[in-house]
Amino acid sequence: MSAQTGHTERTLDQLIPIAHRISDAINSVIEGKPETVRLAMTVLLAEGHVLIEDVPGVGKTLMAKALARSIDCSVRRVQFTPDLLPSDITGVSAFNQELREFEFKPGPIFANLVLGDEINRASPKTQSAMLESMEERQVTVDGVTYQLESPFMVLATQNPVEMEGTYPLPEAQRDRFTARISLGYPSAKAELAMLAAHGSHSPLDELKPAAHASDVRALIAAVREVHVADQVRQYIIDLVNATRTAASLRLGASPRAALHLLRASRAYAALEDRNFVIPDDIQALAGPVLAHRLLPTAEAVVGRDLPEQALARIVERLPLPGR
Predict the structure, then answer these.
(1) From its phi and psi, is residue 47 left (phi > 0), alpha (psi between -120 and 50) or beta?
(2) What stretches of 144-267 adopt beta strand conformation (E)?
(3) Pairing of strands 249-251, 295-296
(4) Are 124 and 167 contacting, i.e. CB atoms less than 8 angstroms apart?
(5) Model confidence, pTM
(6) Pairing between β-strand 50-53 and β-strand 179-181 as defined by DSSP bridges
(7) Per the omega criterion (within 30 degrees of 0), is the bond before 151 cis?
(8) Which of 163, 208, 281, 298 gets the highest tally of CB atoms within 10 A of its CB?
(9) What is the three-class DSSP state of 47?
(10) Contact predicate 243/314, CB 8 Å
(11) How many C-beta atoms surround the C-beta of residue 56 within 10 A?
């Protein structure tokens, strides 16, 4: 066993209990959605951003707040509204009368976890203010670039675009979200438990941090060491290329999407207590990581052939990599 492999295994041994503590803390607030919580954890450890999209009232904001409170780090919340300005997010340079010079006042984007509530209710100009920070982990204001502290994650919620008063996210913005999560309605049993637990008080009031920001940084470093075989990398490329030639899609997955799928598969494998990625990880993540980036053709829209359905057909037909 090489020194690097041994280091990876020891780090993963430390990763599993910490990651499980964070997941347990979130699951204590979100009833009956363990797979959704695991996907959110996968995005966190993959250094990505998550878009929580669903109808109002199913717990999108509660999910984001539960993840934020389960980690002892800086958290800022932005309520997106039509009159929100880009400077309200990134910050602004203001003139200091005492110093007789301009000084930068950082906006809410300067936090480890940024909760963007109902992001598609802001104008496209304001939405675009987050492009640089989400991709490059930096903010440029008045020609000066400021680096963002690690870990940095944007948890954005949005209602479906058919809802009143929403602006569709531009393709460049959607492509920067590692995965899209849909909570869906809870089961009858989970909804009954929710009424019992949330009826008199909010479980968020009792939620304590299960890890520190330094723990998350260590977990992210451990995930980077998870092994991905050449055959699995080729499988990712074949999958992404298939979306670009699909007859029902006018916009396939970007090279950034392939990179996000690779990073997410490493995190997914680590949460499964493995230090290597298997094709099953890619198949499990293909929908959440790729579907929101794909645009259907006009014919597919008329025929109600959703990108998720086209992607499922591609995954089913694509041959699995050999040894």
Answers:
(1) left
(2) 144-147, 153-158, 179-181, 211-212, 249-251
(3) antiparallel
(4) yes
(5) 0.87
(6) parallel
(7) yes
(8) 281
(9) coil
(10) yes
(11) 11
> Which tens digits make up the pLDDT trace of 202-212?
777 788 889 89
Domains of the chain: 3-225 (3.40.50.300), 227-323 (1.10.8.80)
CA atoms within 13 A on the CB side of 148: 28
User: 75 and 68 in contact (C-beta within 8 Å)?
Assistant: yes
Residue type, 220: I
pLDDT tens digits for range 169-203: 888 888 999 999 988 787 888 778 777 776 667 77
- Partners of 138 in the beta sheet? 147
**Count of all residues that appear for the chain in the document:** 323
Distance CA 322, CA 306 (A): 30
Type of residue numbered 273: D
Radius of gyration for the alpha carbons in the chain, expressed in angstroms and rounded: 20
